[in-house]
Predict the 3D structure of the following.
Amino acid sequence: MSDLPFILFSLVAACAALMVVTRAVPVHALLYLVVLLLSLAGVFQALGAPFAAMLEIIIYAGAVMVLFVFVVMMLNLGRTDRDRERHWMAPGIWIGPAILSCLLLAALCITLRAMPPTAAPDTLVSIGPQAVGIMLYGPYVLSVELASFLLLAGLVSAFHIGRNIRGTGAATGEA
Amino acid sequence: MNAASPTQALLLATILFATGLLGVLARRNLLLMLMSIEIMLNAAALAFIAAGARWHAAQGQVMFLMILSLAAAEAAVGLAIILRLHAAGRPTLDADTGNRLKG
C-alpha cells in the first residue's frame, strides 16, 4: 500500500477545510464540506479503517449533509445575505482568530514533535467491520446504549424545537 | 514511509481542528459556525482512527461511531434551533442576536 493516496487525500481535506471557513455563500461552503468529508473517508481507508470510511460516506456525507442542504434551502438566502457575509469577513475581524488558531496549531505541532518516538508498526493492518462489531457489542455495549439515548434525545429535542414552524410542521428529522 | 501514516494523520487532524476553530471564532453566520464545528468533530474522529491504526486496535473505530452519533444529534438540534431563529423573524443568521429566541 503506497503512501501517495494518503497524502493526496490529506491535501484535498486541508484545502477543502480552508475553503469551508472562507466562503461567503453557505451552499458553496456546504459543497466544500462534502468534499472534505469524502476525502476524509479516503484518509480513513488509507489508515486501514474501511468500516469507518464507509460510515463517513453514508452517514456524514449522506445523511448529515442532506440535513444541512434542506436547512439552506428552507432559509432561502439571497444576494443581500452574501453581501452582508462579505462585510462580516473584513480583515479586522479575521486577524485575531487567525492568530489564535495559528498559535494553537503551532502548539499542537510542537507537542506532536515532542512525543517520544515509540516503535512504529511496520505495516498498517486493516481492521474490518467484524472486529469492530465484536468490540462494539462485547465490551462496549453500554456505550452503544448511551449512543442510542443520545440519538433519542436529539430526535425529541429537534422535534420539540422545530415543531409547527409557520404552520408547516417542519420537523428536521433525524440523521 | 508507510509506518509514518498515523503521525501524519495526527498532523492532518491538528490542521483540521485549527481550521475549524478559526471558522467558529471568525464567522458570525450560525450555519457556517455549525459547519466549522462539524470540521472540528471530524478532526477528533480522525485522531481516534489514527490512534486505532497505530496500535492495531478496533477501539478507535468504536469511538469514531460514538463521535458519529454525537455529530448527528448535534446537527439535528443545531439546525432545528437555526430554523426556529429564522422563523422567529430574523432574516440574518447573526449569532450575536440569538438572545431574542423565546420558548
